[in-house]
Amino acid sequence: MEYSSGLLTRTGSTWLTKVPAITATFWVIKVLSTTVGETFADYLAVNVGLGPLVTDAIMMIVLVAALVTQFRTTKYTPWIYWLCVVLVSIVGTQITDFLTDTLGVSLYLSTAVFAVILAVVFVVWYRQERTLAITSIDTPRREAFYWAAILTTFALGTAAGDLATEALGLGFRTGVLIFGTLILLTWLASRFGASVVATFWIAYVLTRPLGASLGDLLTQAKDFGGLDLGASVTSLLFFGVILILVVREQLLVNRHGVAVKGQGPLGGHRGDYAWAGGAAVAIAIAGLGLSSTHGTSTTTDTTAATTGDDTTGTPSAQTLHPTTKLGNLTRFATITAAVRAKVDHNDLAGGKTKVKDLEVAWDDAEAGLKPRDPAKWSRLDGEIDDVLTALRDGSPNQADCEARLKTLTDTLNQFDGV
User: Fold this and answer.
1) Same domain, yes or no, for 162 and 242?
2) Within-domain flag for 33
3) What are the two backbone dihedrals, phi and then psi, of residue 328, each rounded to the nearest 5 degrees?
4) In terms of C-beta density within 10 A (0-12 exposed, 13-18 middle, 19 or more buried), how is residue 270 classed?
5) Which one of 28, 136, 194, 314 has the largest count of C-beta atoms within 10 Å of its C-beta?
6) 20 and 157, same domain (yes or no)
7) 82-96 burial, b for 16+ CB within 10 Å, e for fewer?
8) Whole-number Å distance between alpha carbons of 149 and 384
9) 104-113, long-range: CB < 8 A, 24+ apart
10) Is residue 6 part of a domain?
């Protein structure tokens, strides 16, 4: 092997290293891409209404197409590489969510299983190539091992992050502190002589739950401890920062080569640190600024529920004021009452349309609600799914829909004041 212009090459070959130098901007893009990818998948599944199965299939097909493009390139191409990372983050998250939500696999078990799978990938990779160095991704086989490890780290990071913030009830605020601190400790370990390869992959796993917790901190309602920016605003903010940094990366690679930003996997020039720091500061300022202009998302719903003011003719939801360990659930009680009003009048089509509001609101609030009381959240989540299934049946039955809605309403009332 020989070195040329900071690029690892093979003599007589057109192959160049296929991954970026690991610098400060790399980590910023990685953290932000996690949130953007997850939010986009949720948008397709819930807001657009494709559902988890269709969304999973679409994302897997797009990921395969992106990876084929990535493998067909002969050198690191930033926009292709980071598109693959975003898509891998989506699919890795979906794999864990499928195991947890659909198959009911414990987060303890899935975290352990993915940790073992990642260890197996590394063992096989090392036995085949005798190196795990990130700077050595210069053949198709090494790149295949690299992306297999990346996919597994996202699945593992999702499981471990959900285990900490949801199953253990730590919440996204604590999650930001915990995972941020662990990444800092990992960086310090690398500075004091720990294996560069080991610390890189540890940090890579940790950035997934950090990105998710950071995204939840920005998107969740103020009632739940968030900044109430909403998923759309947060995604656009993160996407804008990613776009700027990837464009810069593409320009630098075109002009100077992949290693121009820094020397070694954890190094970086002052300019790179400045761009990374500027991105973090811009997000902080924009987040706090936009948050100050947003009121709590439940204020209007709460007022309407209390006064019975509903211009659509929905009966007052005044009797539904559940304030539990989950937080103020009035918004969900209000929407449920509105759906019941339509179903009671045999307007099942109208009920099906209105229940979309319940699905979106419940999904948006999951990160803030679930850690507070996972058992109560799971019960309500199951009953909301029952309502959605009944109303979206090919031939919905009014009596069945009414029964499902009554069960949900009774549960909300049961949790009132608990």
Assistant:
1) yes
2) yes
3) -75, 115
4) exposed
5) 28
6) yes
7) bbbbbbbbbbbbbbb
8) 36
9) 107/159, 107/162, 107/163, 107/166, 107/167, 108/163, 108/167, 110/155, 110/159, 111/156, 111/159, 111/160, 111/163
10) no
Higher pLDDT, 196 or 369: 196
At 249, list the tokens: 């990366």
- Residue 351: the pLDDT is 92
Residue where the block lists tokens 């998923």: 231
What does R_g of the chain's alpha carbons equal in angstroms?
24
Judgement on whether residues 261 and 343 belong to the same structural domain of the protein: no
Residues 6+ apart with CB under 8 A from 43: 231, 235
User: Does residue 7 lie within any of the structural domains?
Assistant: no
Sequence-separated (6 or more) residues with CB below 8 Å from residue 253: 76, 77, 78, 260
Domain count, the chain: 2
Task: Determine the Cα–Cα distance for residues 162 and 93; give it in Å rounded to an integer.
Answer: 10
Query: How many Cβ atoms are within 10 Å of 149's Cβ, its own excluded?
Result: 19
Weakest-pLDDT range from 212-216, 284-288, 304-308: 304-308
pTM above 0.85, yes or no: no
SS3 category, 12:
coil
Full residue range of the structural domain in which residue 402 is found: 299-414
Backbone angles phi, psi at 14, to 5 degrees: -90, 0
272 & 257 share domain: yes
Based on the domain organization, do 278 and 310 belong to the same domain? no
Residue 74 in domain: yes
CA distance 125 to 132: 7
Q: What pLDDT digit, counting tens, does each position of 66-100 carry? A: 999 999 988 889 999 999 999 998 898 888 888 88
Q: Are 365 and 355 in contact (CB under 8 A)?
A: no
CA distances from 152 to 145, 159, 202, 226, 356 (A): 11, 11, 12, 29, 33
- 88 lies in the same domain as 161: yes
Domain boundary residue, one of 239, 260, 292: 292
